[in-house]
Structure formats: C-alpha cells, structure tokens
Amino acid sequence: MRVILVGFGNLGRGLSRVLVQKASFLHRSHGLITRVVAVVDEFGSVVDEKGLNLNELLKVAEKKGTVVAYKGGKRGKLALKVIDDVEADVVYDLTPTNIKTGEPGLTHIKRAMREGKHVITSNKGPLVVAFRELDSLAKRCGVEFRYSASVGGAIPVVGLAKKLLAGNEIHEIRGVLNGTTNYILTRMSKEGAPFEVVLREAKELGIAEKDPTLDIEGIDTACKITILANSLLGMNARLKEVKRAGIARVRPEAIRLAQEAGYTIKLIGIAKRGSLEVGPKLVPLGHPLAVGGTLNAVTFKLDLAREISITGFGAGPKETSSSLLGDLIDIHRTLGG
Amino acid sequence: MRVILVGFGNLGRGLSRVLVQKASFLHRSHGLITRVVAVVDEFGSVVDEKGLNLNELLKVAEKKGTVVAYKGGKRGKLALKVIDDVEADVVYDLTPTNIKTGEPGLTHIKRAMREGKHVITSNKGPLVVAFRELDSLAKRCGVEFRYSASVGGAIPVVGLAKKLLAGNEIHEIRGVLNGTTNYILTRMSKEGAPFEVVLREAKELGIAEKDPTLDIEGIDTACKITILANSLLGMNARLKEVKRAGIARVRPEAIRLAQEAGYTIKLIGIAKRGSLEVGPKLVPLGHPLAVGGTLNAVTFKLDLAREISITGFGAGPKETSSSLLGDLIDIHRTLGG
After folding, report:
1. Are strands A44-47 and A74-75 parallel, antiparallel or unpaired?
2. CATH class for the domain made up of B161-313
3. Residue B67 DSSP symbol
4. Range 167-196 of A in CB contact (< 8 A) with B
5. Sign of the CA dihedral B183, B243, B286, A122?
6. Mean pLDDT over all residues of chain A?
7. What is the pLDDT of residues A161-185, one digit of tens each?
8. What is the DSSP letter of A46?
9. Domain ranges for chain B
10. Cα(B10)–Cα(A273) distance, rounded to whole angstroms?
11. Residue B316 region, left (φ>0) first, then alpha (ψ -120 to 50), else beta?
C-alpha cells in the first residue's frame, strides 16, 4: 500500500515509528507492505514515489521541526498538490482538529476521495462538521473511509459496533470519552480535592492543556458522541444539538456522597436516536464505565447482547497508532489483500 | 444464505427465534437473506430446500421436544446425511460439548468443510480437541470457519483480536470466562458466605449445574483459554497443558483480606506464549476484570494499544445469538455480500 501522510505531529510521527518497527510483522502476519510515498506537514512536504526512508525522515523532522529539511523537501502549502499528484492508495489525514470549520482536514479528505484515494483520519473536525457528506462522498467515489482513531484513541469503538456487533440494533451508546476530565474526576474522587486544584496540577503535568475549555466543558466528548451517533446510529446530528454540561461545577462533596451510595461521578456522553447528551453522571462502582485515570470506556446497549463494554487508552501516539494501523490493515483486507 | 442447523437445544432455538425476528433488519442493514433449509436434533431432522417456516417449527419442537414431529420430519441419526445431501452455504454446529472426544461436533464440522460448506460453531469440544486440524482443514477446503460463541458468549473476543487489534502483537490474554464461578465468587465477596453455601444456592437457582465440576474446577475456563491460545497466539496447545486450580478452596476470609487491600478474587484464565494457566487470582477493584455477577471479561495486553478490555454476558441463548449471527454476517461480508 502506497501511503501519503498529511500531518506529521505526534500522531504522524508515532504512526511512522510503528510502520518502521512493524514492517516485517505486517508483511508476515497480513501480507501488507507499506510504502510512505509522501509526508506533508504545516511547513511543506517531501515526496519519494519509491518510498521514503522513515527512520531518516523522523530524525531530520525531529531535529529541524519540519520535513522540509529532509532531502528533496519543499516549502509551501502543498497538501492538496501532493494529494492530487502523488500516486498512492491511502491518504492519512492527521492534521489538527478544528471543530468549527473541519479544516484543513475536511478539504484534504474530500480531495483525496475525489482522486480515488482511500482515507484514514484521526481528525474529529471533518467528521463533526460533515459526517454524512464525507460518508456519501466515499461511497460515490468508491473509496474506503476509516476514522477509528477519532473516538476512543486505541479503543476500536466504531469497528466493534459495525463489524462485530453487526447483528444487533444499538439502543444506546454511553462513553467516558475524554481522558483529561476522567483524570481530574478520578483524582477529585481519590483525594477529595476541589476541581480547581486538580485542574491546576493536571496542567502542570501536561495532562490538561493550557486552555482546557474543550475538555472540561464537555465539548470534546460532545464531538465524539456526535461522531458515534452519525456513524453508528445513522443520525445526521450536529454538534450544537448535543445537550451539554461540563465538570467545572462538580464538587468533591458530591463525589463523596455518590461513593457512599456505591457510585462514582463520570463525564458521560450518551447517544440514542433523537437524543444526544454530555454531562456528569452517576456510574455504579464496578460498572465498566467506572474506569479511573485517563482511561476511556464505551458501553453499548443492544437488543441481543444486552450490554457490551470496552475499555482502553483514549490517547497517546503509540496507543492511537493501534487504531490508525488497524484501519490500514482493514482496508488492505477489504480490498482482498 | 442457505443454512443448516445441527443442534436444536437452547442455542439452536434461540438463534432461530432471532433469525425470524430480525429477518427484515438483516436484509435492510446487511443485504442478508437467510433461509434455514434443514434442522437436525438428537432425534432426527427436517429438511425443506425452499426454507423451513421457523416459527411453526419452533412451536412444534417446543411442544413435542423434537423437530421430528414437524411435517416431513424424519427419525434417526441424520446429521451427516443432511450435511452431505442438503445444498447449503453454512452449517451451524450447535451440538453439546464433549471436551474429551469433541464429538459429535467434530465429525459434523469436518464433514461440512469437506463438503465445501462454511462452518459456524458454539461448541468448545471440537476446538479444544482439534483446533489446528480444523483451522487447516477449513483453509484446504476453501471455507470460512467461525467460532465466536465458543468463548465469551455474547462478547466478540476472537473477532476483537483478529479483526480490530490486528496491528498489535498480543503479549497476554486474561479472562473471566465462566459465569457460574464468577457468580459464586461475587456472592461470596458480597455476603462473606462460604463456597459450599453459595454453590448450593446457585444450583437451586439453576446458575450452577447439578454436577458443577467443569465450572468450579476451572475446566471450562481452561477449555476457553486453550481455544484463545490456539486461535490468537498461534499455539498448538492441549487442554492438559493448562496449569489449573478451581475455586473450591477459596475462603471468604481470603476475599475479605483482598478487599481490604483494594482487590477482589476472580477465577482468571491466562494465556501467553508458552504458558497457560487457570486459577483464582487477585484483581484490583476497578479493573475491567473485576466484573460481578455472571458477567465475563477479557483483557488483552498488547504492544501498541497496551491494554484493551471487553466485558459482557458470557451465556444465554439470546445473548449468544449475537455472536452466532455476527459470524454469519461476517461470512456474508467476507464472501462479498
């Protein structure tokens, strides 16, 4: 498979490292040989239709901060040109998320599909802004479209429902889908410390961003629940339709009272047909959604299996590469590889 | 898809009910039309190449205790004759498990494969006795072979690893794979009651069988861990290689001490390359394997995703039909449906 990587931040580099480390495993176990023929970052691009030496490229990009410094690298806004001109099977869009416009990922993805290239993305923006459009475009263009890494990081949430629980009707999806808020609530619950104190420490540890609004106000969770609703419940939901509350007003006393009654408080996203919601909710201790630390978890309520839950790491470049690589293997298999 | 059901006990009937109820869902969502062309039970068989009326067949079989009583039903040991003679795409073997001989499922499965029919089974026996042989035979015969329901009931354990975590190397598999022992340990832990008392009550409730040896001595768990090791770790393990301890010697005091230290005790099956084990183990409270009641759970330790856990119902005819039907949809898709 000839691959173009658009976006070479933590995820793009993490995936590249994994592609190098696992080249022989992928060949041996899946008959999959990957060749990264172009890498685009915010400063420019580098192309080698014979396949870039990712090890060398990673070294240069980490030292100089861009792939432009690599031999043959070119400066400029070159993503669309590369997507158009370079022959490839799959385009990875791993650019930063913009949940208002979906850009630049949205344009990359549409262009790639129109060029007949399969698309894998981790980018919530395009999916939140234009899920149905992208889903239809992929079908019209006859290309595969995968976005496992956009929800749940390493947890294959979308694939679990679409591929393995396909005989079920999904009544409801509930998820702990944001590691930062889960970390904060877990520490509040263990230490009885107030929200503001734990948030400050989370920032110092790099677990919360400097501006943590998207996380603590539940917007990131709302994006993910919108994607799941559209992808798995066949909805055409918009982000603004999600009824949303964050965790800033959760008090340690409330968590303590919950614990005394056998519960904990988690920021939960809930999708069912006609109703999307994010907010702090009571979860029984011992339930799979009562996961601690930065873990994520999703519970499906189903007509046959009743309840299936899956838990894992919702972020991290290596962890997320499990999903990014899983999508590539899945496309390879779908194409008969 | 033309389907033969061999075995018409709880699972066969449960699946049949689901096939009736979900006929339009399966057609609409997956383009799958199923036609059950033959049903075999321990007393005989009934065949209709145009497709049996499952609703009527279920009524008769439940009233009379066998499909022989249905119009056109024939008495006798007819499984192999039906597998040979009736044109069909898929044979379900849903016969009772015999972990020593694998029979009668083993013979059914081999015959179906040699006849060029795809096979779906819930039967641990053939998989424990002859996994590698069946896996190779399926490949040689060019047929699909699925056994999701054999481990974890409704939980798609095998598919999760094979399809969705395919980019990972699996370092270890740990599972709570037996609902009866999990129920007993959960009640011992909640009530401080001794093993013998809880076991007696579990028998009265029908949660434990009259002869609960296979469950409480960890043999059922050992079977499942053997299947997972062979299927997912590429091993050629035999049941007798599993180091095994049951739960009869777990004392309420041990559970109480564990709880004081933040743990619970579960009967855990563990598979890693070169080492298979079943026994009571400490599990941290809050870990996905610390599930209560009759729930099952499996944790994969992986090189990329680190740890992914999945939880759900490990038994029940309706729940298990989620896996049996999922396998059928998967074969339909694999064949390009």
Report:
1. antiparallel
2. alpha beta
3. G
4. 167-169
5. negative
6. 97
7. 999 999 999 999 999 999 999 999 9
8. E
9. 2-154+317-334, 161-313
10. 32
11. left
Q: Of the CATH numbers 3.40.50.720, 3.30.365.10, 3.10.310.30, 3.30.70.270, which one belongs to the domain with range B2-154+317-334? A: 3.40.50.720
Note the pLDDT tens digit of each residue in A23-59.
999 999 999 999 999 999 999 999 999 999 999 999 9
Q: Of B110, B224, B266, B281, which is the active-site residue?
A: B224
Query: What integer is the mean pLDDT of A139-161?
Result: 98
Task: Tell me which of A143-152, A202-211, A299-308 is least confident.
Answer: A202-211
Query: Catalytic residue at A224?
Result: yes
The amino acid sitting at A309 is: S
C-alpha closest to that of B46 among B56, B35, B55, B57:
B57
| Residues B95-152 pLDDT 10s | 999 999 999 999 999 999 999 999 999 999 999 999 999 999 999 999 999 999 999 9
Q: A307 at the B interface (CB within 8 A)?
A: yes
Of A43, A35, A51, nearest to A74 (Cα)?
Answer: A43
Complex ipTM > 0.90: yes
CB contact under 8 A, A286 and B288: no
- What residue has token string 């029984």? A284
Average pLDDT, integer, range B146-170 = 98
Which of B302, B307, B326 comes nearest A164 by C-beta?
Answer: B326
Cβ contacts of A161 on chain B, cutoff 8 Å: none
Examine the pLDDT at B337 and tell me if it is beyond 80. no
